[in-house]
Design a protein that fits this description.
Blueprint: H1 2-18, E1 33-37, H2 48-61, E2 67-71, H3 79-88, E3 93-97, H4 102-111, E4 116-120, E5 133-137, H5 140-154, E6 159-164, H6 170-186, E7 191-196, H7 209-221, E8 226-229, H8 232-244, E9 248-253, E10 267-273, H9 275-290, E11 299-302, E12 305-307, H10 319-334
Parallel strand pairs: 1-2, 1-3, 3-4, 4-5, 5-11, 6-7, 6-8, 8-9, 9-10
Antiparallel strand pairs: 10-12
Helix pairs in contact: 2-9, 3-4, 5-6, 5-10, 7-8
Length: about 350
């Protein structure tokens, strides 16, 4: 505990030094400072933390940000303190990552109302929005729809499956039902099985690799030859199980090719949340709000989902499949194609 406290103090001192008048003063109006507080883990995680940081770095390269720093969270109990370090140092924008950091972000945003906050994957409840907080959220139903459409075009058995956490979680449910709808959109005669880990507690459902692998094997034994894996260790294990059995796999949230080397040889693609562009866009909107040019988009800010490259399997994906997937992606983006999946499970 003492070492952790010392590390926090040293980090806080380093941040304050970086913003001192001898370099760049974060309290000056013409110096825009952005701080990232990671979800538990390191900034180079090939996942949400890294994507958020890359968005900040792009804003800095474009000249919208003069100072950028991050704090790597070791324990969830440190969220409030870590966020407050940047707020106390005079930072203009603080980015936090993941739903688990949502409550801490809301609490600190209420205390520091002159600071702008961006919460990645942090849904803002209607009626509880804060004027200085934007949740960068994504249409998981559209991402799942893309995954289902790809799976339906690549199956040889006319059987595809998805392995996800509990459907009590709205994001997970939207992924699963989007997958089902997307697959049946391509071929209404397909057998589509969406397996939810609904017998587990909400906090454990995404972190059960044994269940994920077992369920993937069950679906494959039943004839599924494409497996979509949801977020977390549960879905990752399903992707690795699919690869071990030699069937196609499709990842979620971010490009699993770089995170899961065991799954990579059979990974068709991943449906991804475009976090970096979303962060870059929101930082630009903060700059506009600071000059009075436009209002800060508090509440929920809709990000974009797309699909990752086919990587090692590019030669196995026919050109007409890719063209159809691009057509679907465009339709989902411009609203001409709807998933008909409601935001919350009925």
């Amino acid at each position: 505990m003492r070492n952790a406290a010392l590390a926090t103090l040293l980090l806080a001192a380093a941040i304050l030094a970086a913003c001192s008048p001898s370099s760049l003063d974060c309290t000056r109006y013409d110096v825009v400072c952005v701080g990232l507080v990671t979800g538990v883990g390191q900034v180079k995680d090939n996942a949400f933390n890294q994507a958020a940081w890359e968005g900040i770095q792009q804003a800095q390269a474009d000249g919208d940000v003069q100072v950028a720093n991050y704090i790597e969270t070791v324990s969830a109990k440190d969220y409030d303190e870590n966020i407050a370090v940047f707020a106390d140092a005079g930072y203009d924008i603080i980015v936090t990552v993941g739903a688990a950091e949502g409550q801490a972000t809301t609490d600190v945003a209420e205390k520091y109302q002159h600071v702008y906050f961006i919460g990645v994957d942090q849904y803002q409840e209607t009626g509880a929005e804060r004027l200085n907080l934007a949740g960068l959220v994504f249409p998981e139903d559209q991402a799942g729809f893309l995954a289902g459409a790809l799976a339906a075009q690549m199956t040889a058995t006319n059987m595809v499956g998805a392995v996800l956490g509990t459907d009590a979680d709205s994001q997970t449910w939207r992924y699963g039902e989007g997958f089902r709808t997307g697959a049946l959109y391509i071929n209404p005669d397909l057998t589509v099985t969406v397996a939810y880990h609904s017998d587990a507690d909400l906090e454990d459902a995404d972190t059960d690799p044994d269940w994920g692998a077992t369920m993937a094997y069950t679906l494959i034994d039943a004839g599924a030859d494409v497996i979509f894996g949801g977020p977390g260790a549960t879905g990752d294990a399903a992707l690795e199980a699919a690869a071990a059995r030699g069937v196609y796999a499709i990842g979620s949230d971010l490009d699993a090719y770089y995170r899961l080397p065991e799954a990579a040889p059979r990974l068709l693609s991943s449906v991804v949340k475009q976090i970096s562009p979303g962060i870059r866009e929101l930082i630009g909107r903060v700059r506009a709000a600071m000059t009075g040019a436009r209002m800060f988009p508090s509440g929920n800010y809709a990000g974009v989902c797309s699909y990752a490259p086919f990587h090692d399997l590019a030669a196995q994906v026919p050109a007409d499949v890719e063209a159809r997937l691009d057509e679907i992606e465009q339709g989902l983006s411009d609203g001409s194609l709807l998933t008909d999946v409601p935001p919350v499970k009925p």
